[in-house]
Amino acid sequence: MMLRYALARIAVALALIWAVVTIVFLVIHVVPGDPAELLLAQGGVAPDPAAVAELREKLGLDQPILTQYLAYVCGLLRGDLGSSLLDDHSVAEEIALHLPRTLELILAAGLIATMLGLPLGTIAALRTGRPIDRILSAAAGLGLSVPVFVVGTLAVLVFAQKLRLVPAGGFVPFTRDPAQHLLLLLMPAATIAVGLGAVVFRMTRTSVLEVLRRDYVRTAHAKGLSARRIVMHHVIRNALIPVVTVLALHMGSLLGGTVLVEFVFNWPGLSGDLVRAVEQRDYPEVVGIVLVISVVLVIINLVVDLLYAVIDPRVRHG
Amino acid sequence: MSMNVSRRSVLAGAAALPFLRMRGARAATPGTMTFGLSSYPPSIQPWANTGTAAATVKLMIHRGLTGFAPDGSLRAELAESWAPEGTTAWVFKLRDATFQNGEKVTSADVKWTIEQVAGEKSTAYLRTQMQSIDKIETPDDKTVRFVMKEPVAILPVTLANFHMPIVSRVSDPKALVGAGPFTIKAQERGVAIDLEAFPKYYKPGLPKLKAIRAVAYADENLRVAALQAGDVDLIEYVPWQAMETISKDTNLSLDAVDGPYMYLVFNATKPPFDDARVRRAVAHAIKREEVVKAAFFGRGSRLAHLPILKTSEFFNPEYENGWAHDPALAKKLLSEAGHADGFGCSLLSTAQYGMHKDTAEVVQQNLAAIGIRAELNLPDWATRVSIGNKGQYDLAVMGDAADSNDPDGIAKAIDGSLSAAYTRSFGLKTSKITALIKAGSAEFDRDKRKAIYKELEALAIEETPIVGVAWRSQGYAMQKRVSGFKNRPGALTFYSGTTFEDVSVG
Q1: How many other CB atoms are there within 10 angstroms of residue A8's CB atom?
Q2: Mutate to test the interface with B, among A31, A39, A45 (most CBs of B within 10 A)
Q3: Which alpha helices (DSSP H) does chain A contain, by range?
Q4: pLDDT value of position B14
Q5: What pLDDT is attached to residue B430?
Q6: 3-state secondary structure of A251
Q7: Do A266 and B218 touch (CB under 8 A)?
Q8: How far apart are alpha carbons A156 and A42 in whole angstroms?
Q9: CB–CB of B150/B33 below 8 Å?
Q10: Is the predicted pLDDT of residue B426 greater than 70, yes or no?
């Protein structure tokens, strides 16, 4: 029964990925804007129509859209994501270059957010209604409401321009200079962590408050366990489950959503690459990136679905 | 191994933060310059136009037969001299120069280069111009003779274009080799390009720098922040709003010139803009100072005539105010054209670039004052280009720079005989203007050329194939320790990459 359920979910996931690829392929081809024209019209100059026609032919853009779509899908089935229309660079290589950078940014932000949000959320819950709770809750509200580009711009202004503690932005591969790489990662990750940390803080606070009201916590108190032991071993551990779920979902959604931070800090990740590809109408690059993001998100959802089925048998029978 | 983290150790760690700054993060490594590019070049193909950032990099690694001196005049590069032979031939004498693959620069390389550019499958920017060459003769290794299909007086200027470098004919087609002052050492796609000095560059003692690291900063504010923080030595495309602050900073200097310009183009395939009187009415409705203030923070100047620089010998002072703001005249012209009550139209621009959007908003208000109800259409740049090329608009805002400071450089904006393009009015017939442009480019006598372009400007003021709106300031900013950099004048500002051979840091 479990195997059938798993196969059914995988089939749905594959259908979903195919649908996303098809929709994105068609939409990006239908919206106005010709990559050949754009490539030869950089800097606001008029390209020679003959040169545009040559380039369109070279890039296969003169073919009917159905032919282009079938060729793309055939390529996909062979594991080929195609080449960039801009410089013939392999899309797969491009994604392999940019995806780890974005994942690293998201993971670093998640780490900072957890390191701040978890303890502070717990403290706020344990001191509920007191000044420290109010101050932290207000700060979390601020963290959630201030747009990420404002936080980023202020961070550059203060820490790079005024205090000169860190570079204004940029990227150096870890293999080339590990210390510089981490230094450049610090500000963009911290900027994302402001909002993400606020989410973790709020979830932790709510969850801890809820657990504190549970019978087993009351029992632990009655048994004479120390408050520290109760919080560490009974409260936080149980309160973590919803926090981790929410954190994972938020981090997943960041995969295509770090564009502003990448832009503000000149971090060459996948989101920025996607925006550049859309602006340039670099069709294979757009579809390839969206495909990869979809696959990652679908896999996360698939794993969650399967885990639910393992935890709760009613799901697979329902 | 256990590790105790005390409050004191945390504070000590925080205090050490400033020393965490790696040397590489700061500019000013001896002999090396860090340059903040406005974008990462999509491609550095030598003859295709892939943007000004790419052009700047191309000027580091390539050289053409001719080039532009700091004052904007034409100067020798790979050719040490040139001269016309009659009106239909040019002879270029090459100097002793070496390509970065160690091969000598010869007339055969020049011939091969021109043939690639003019080729049938070419996507080169200057393909049409190079196709005007009928025959290329190479009597010896150092002499190239171009036989033209018809007289072309401006060939040496065209050959100075940064899209026309001479490339070694024995290059790998995917990595064409030039003879410029720097070679590409490494590229991190989307991030940075590392260049190092080419030791056999043909100019003795140049380049002065050992290496350049060109780092792409797409966000203009971050580019400025990187300069102010000392991460980079020099930046291009200084945003207008930052020019004041930079010019007051004692550690920085600003080098800005008026070169590129904003203008309006029309769809002349249908009423009302098929009527020259209506186009001229639009020209007289624009308050250009407002555009300069709103779109460029006052960093630019009004442009009420054809985009020919005041410093140019072809500038005609009598037409400087040919399209001056005059709402009464604008209304009179509209009335004469049968639009006394005004009309509605679309005004195409783009929301992707602030200067285009801001210009469009001011133009919209100015047009409303004479009864023209313009409805803004502000798609992204790709869509704007596509719509413009198809003529799906009535009136549109455009920004561009001439190909050179020669008046022929503005032909691409006003010559209606050229193919339909978003950079010029759609479907506008300009037979007289076209004839004058052709006559100007074929005329070898300086005074006769001046007379031709004077007649052309007078005609253009009447016909109004475009409407000049504003010159915009194009700036480079740098640390005070950078010397030798010079922003080229006018339209040649984008040729300032040539200057990197003279730059030194420290």
Answers
A1: 12
A2: A45
A3: 2-30, 35-39, 49-59, 65-77, 91-126, 131-145, 148-155, 178-212, 215-222, 227-230, 236-253, 259-264, 270-279, 283-311, 313-317
A4: 45
A5: 94
A6: helix
A7: yes
A8: 30
A9: no
A10: yes
User: Does B55 sit within 8 Å of A43, measured CB to CB?
Assistant: yes
In the predicted model, is pLDDT for residue B143 greater than 90?
yes
Q: Which residue has the higher pLDDT, A248 or B441?
A: B441
Interface pTM, i.e. ipTM: 0.76
Contact state of A42 with B421 under an 8 Å Cβ cutoff: no
CA nearest to A93 within chain B: B189
Q: Which structure tokens are listed for B71?
A: 């004052």
Residue A96 pLDDT grade (very low, low, confident, very high; cuts 50, 70, 90): very high
Say if CB A1 and CB A316 are below 8 A apart.
yes
3-class secondary-structure state, position A277? helix
Phi first, then psi, for residue B67 (nearest 5°) are -155, -170
Give the span between the Cα atoms of B444 and B154, in whole angstroms: 8
Label residues B416-450 b or e (16+ Cβ within 10 Å = b): bebebbbbbbbebebeebbebbbbbbbbeeeeebb
- What residues of chain A lie within 8 A of the CB of B188, using their CB? 171, 173
- DSSP letter for each residue of A167-189: -SS----TTT-HHHHHHHHHHHH
Asked if A98 and B123 come within 8 Å (Cβ–Cβ), the reply is no
Sorting pLDDT into bands at 50, 70 and 90, what band is B1?
A: very low
* Residue in B28, B506, B22 with CA at minimum distance from that of residue B227: B28
A157 class by beta-carbon count within 10 Å (0-12 exposed, 13-18 middle, 19+ buried): middle
**pLDDT tens readout for residues A164-211:** 888 999 899 999 899 999 999 999 999 999 999 999 999 999 999 999
Does the pLDDT value for residue B470 go beyond 80?
A: yes
Q: List Cβ neighbours of B455 (8 Å cut-off, separation of 6 or more).
A: B436
- Three-point CA angle A171, A176, A179, nearest 5°: 70
Query: Given this model, what pLDDT does residue B307 score?
Result: 96
Chain A residues whose beta carbon lies within 8 Å of the beta carbon of residue B38: none
- Chain A contact for B218, CB < 8 A? yes
- State whether B191 and A86 contact (CB < 8 Å): no
Closest-CA residue of chain A to B163: A40
Average pLDDT value for chain A: 87
Contacts of B63 (CB under 8 A, 6+ apart): B77, B78, B97, B165, B166, B178, B179, B180, B181
Q: B89 at the A interface (CB within 8 A)? A: no
Smallest CA-to-CA distance from A204 within A163, A172, A236, A157 is with: A236
B349 band by pLDDT with thresholds 50, 70 and 90: very high
User: Using CB atoms, which residue from B18, B51, B422 is nearest to A42?
Assistant: B51
State percent of chain B over pLDDT 70.
94
Q: Residue B22: what pLDDT?
A: 43
- Please give the radius of gyration of chain B, using alpha carbons only, rounded to the nearest integer: 25
- Which residues of B, range 42-81, sit inside 8 Å of A by Cβ? 42-43, 48-52, 54-55
pTM over 0.90: no
**Under an 8 A CB cutoff, do A279 and B55 touch?**
no
- When CB atoms are compared, the residue of A98, A266, A280 closest to B42 is A280
Q: Which residues pair with B90 in a beta bridge?
A: B84, B146
pLDDT at A314 over 80: no
Task: Give the pLDDT confidence of A144-167 residue by residue, as tens digits.
Answer: 999 998 999 999 999 998 888 889
Q: Name chain B contacts of A156, Cβ cutoff 8 Å.
A: 221-222, 225
Cβ–Cβ gap A48/B128 under 8 Å: yes
Q: Tell whether B128 is within 8 A of chain A (Cβ).
A: yes
Is the Cβ–Cβ distance between B441 and B406 less than 8 Å? no
Q: Is the pLDDT of residue A84 over 80?
A: yes
